[in-house]
Design a protein that fits this description.
- A 3-stranded antiparallel sheet has the order 1-4-8.
- It is mainly α.
- Helix 11 crosses helix 13.
- Helix content is 52%, strand content 7%.
- It folds into 2 domains: 215 residues, Heat-Labile Enterotoxin, Chain A; 193 residues, no CATH class.
- It starts with 33 loop residues before the first helix and ends with a helix.
Length: 539
């Protein structure tokens, strides 16, 4: 069939069960009741401006609430098994629908509005985007089967009105209910029934080609500038929109039509269900692909139901494309989970290495030559290995400096131990000429008190020098100036109160650093969106 041939095929084609009650582009068919239409039209679409959700929001709570119940909404009342005003009544009246359709009384309406038509939702969203002040418009996709028993079409209620009950704007409301394929939901829409909510700016680029302008080169770059209908004209009706989009579709060559009714339909369906589809592709692959196939087939039938019936191969193409996309989404999500787990292992390995590097050593039990830094964990990254090598060099340099000060302290003690002062009655020159045996004889009658006291003083100074070495190594990371001092500086004995003060600060700083790193690690694990995969990995 060439471009410009708009004749409907005359040969009858078998209609499957899913297409039996499929809705046309505009209005309803022979059936206007909600429950019989759900099997062939299992999705509802609602325009809304998103609000910041509560941090304690649960999927079982209401997602959309009727304006009559918006002020006194209560979760316990919604879940109550007793009769409450939030429960749908046994039957709906004309007064309820007229209160909802009249804009002067809509604030007291008990209904939430939705539509069977995704095309009407896109058309109305672009109109509101252009003429309104708020541009954060989203289209929510709702599971219609989850609302069975609490929803009704507006056209069905308006048809039940008697001539005496009809409002003066009755036929205006009826035309709107037909073109929008309007559905009225009593009370609220639960969060479990809302599959996804996607911004309009993410939907428009993924529309099939017959929805877009044929020559976008002369169009200014705005989020809605590429669409192929006159959204900026106030008198541009939805009926005209449907006619224009059908003409755009029929002007396309056959291969472009097949592409738009297969790959283009799958692309738009995945865009409507993107966050839900990616999550369910991992959790329940069959449900995800089956739901996406049904929505893609609805999009495929919209430009021409007769075209879809004439080309049944598009159904198989859609099913294959959805399965391919689902497999790719599941594999991408699995790869991302593994990458996140590996990245968390690197973080843990780096924290362990850093904690070992900052742990103070105890040189009283082992010499400075045995002081070493543990090797880098195999899970640590290259950046952590470089940082650990730098810390190791820093620790060894500080240890050498402390060891040099220790040796200088010992050297300063040698004259006191092995070179006692000469007797006052013997000159220094003559005492230096005496033989070792004579010098020993002169030392014999000397009192033993200085000899006993001198080792005691040296042991005290030796203990102080060892303490100085311990404090220098333990405080090297928060006292770098003292650790990197030149080795040629003369070492002086510390005061009696310096050692416990430095050791206290070193232990306190080490505890604070360890608590900080452990707290950071636990916070990252708790706030991570993949904490379940991380917990499964570590357990």
């Amino acid at each position: 069939m060439g471009a410009g041939n708009y004749d409907i095929p005359r040969s009858p084609v078998e209609v499957n069960a899913q297409e039996r009650n499929a809705l046309p582009q505009y209005g309803f068919g022979s059936e206007v009741s909600f429950d019989p239409l759900v099997d062939s039209n299992p999705f509802l679409f609602r325009l809304h401006t998103p609000k910041e959700p509560s941090p304690f929001y649960d999927a079982t709570e209401p997602y959309f609430v009727a304006q009559a119940f918006a002020d006194d909404v209560s979760e316990s009342a919604f879940r109550s098994t007793k009769i409450s005003p939030y429960r749908p009544p046994a039957s709906y009246s004309y007064a309820d629908v007229s209160r909802h359709m009249d804009w002067t009384t809509r604030s007291s309406s008990p209904f939430v509005t939705a539509s069977f038509s995704f095309a009407w939702a896109v058309y109305e969203a672009t109109r509101r985007y252009h003429h309104g002040m708020k541009h954060s418009i989203e289209i929510a996709v709702i599971d219609a089967k989850a609302l069975s028993g609490r929803a009704v079409t507006a056209a069905e209620l308006l048809r039940k009105a008697t001539p005496e009950e009809r409002h003066k704007d009755h036929w205006k409301w009826y035309r709107y209910a037909l073109e929008a394929q309007d559905v009225l939901i009593w009370g609220y829409v639960p969060g479990s029934a809302v599959l996804a909510s996607i911004p309009l700016t993410q939907i428009l680029p993924r529309l099939p080609s017959y929805f877009l302008a044929p020559d976008p080169s002369h169009i200014k770059e705005t989020p809605i500038s590429r669409v192929g209908w006159a959204y900026d004209q106030k008198k541009y009706t939805y009926r005209t929109f449907c006619q224009d989009m059908s003409e755009h579709f029929l002007r396309l060559p056959v291969d472009r039509r097949i592409r738009d009714t297969s790959a283009g339909a799958v692309r738009l369906a995945i865009a409507f269900l993107r966050p839900w589809f990616h999550k369910m592709a991992t959790d329940d692959f069959t449900t995800a692909t089956a739901t996406a196939c049904v929505l893609a087939q609805m999009v495929s039938r919209w430009p021409g139901l007769w075209w879809a019936r004439e080309h049944p191969e598009t159904v198989d193409l859609i099913r294959c494309l959805v399965h391919i996309v689902g497999e790719e989404a599941r594999e991408a999500r699995r790869t991302q989970a593994l990458a996140d787990a590996g990245r968390m292992q690197d973080i843990v390995g780096g924290l362990e290495t850093l904690a070992r590097s900052f742990t103070p050593s105890r040189p009283r039990h082992r010499s400075i030559s045995s002081f070493s830094i543990p090797s880098v964990s195999s899970t640590a990254s290259v950046a952590d290995e470089d940082e650990t090598l730098f810390d190791r060099d820093f620790v060894l340099k500080a240890g050498r400096a402390a060891s040099e000060r220790y040796r200088m302290s010992i050297a300063s003690l040698k004259p006191r131990v092995f070179s006692p002062p000469p007797p006052p009655d013997v000159p220094e020159a003559s005492s230096s000429k005496l033989l070792p045996s004579e010098r020993a004889k002169e030392k014999a009658p000397a009192p033993a008190e200085p000899i006993v006291k001198t080792p005691s003083a040296s042991s005290v100074l030796l203990e102080q020098a060892s303490s100085r070495l311990t404090s220098a190594v333990s405080s090297l990371f928060h006292s770098a100036s003292s650790a990197t001092a030149p080795a040629t500086t003369s070492a002086t004995a510390p005061r009696q109160g310096d050692e416990p003060t430095l050791d206290y600060y070193a232990r306190t700083a080490s505890a604070l650093l360890t608590g900080f790193f452990l707290g950071t690690f636990l916070t990252l694990c708790v706030l991570s969106p993949h904490r379940r995969e991380i917990a499964n990995h570590w357990t």
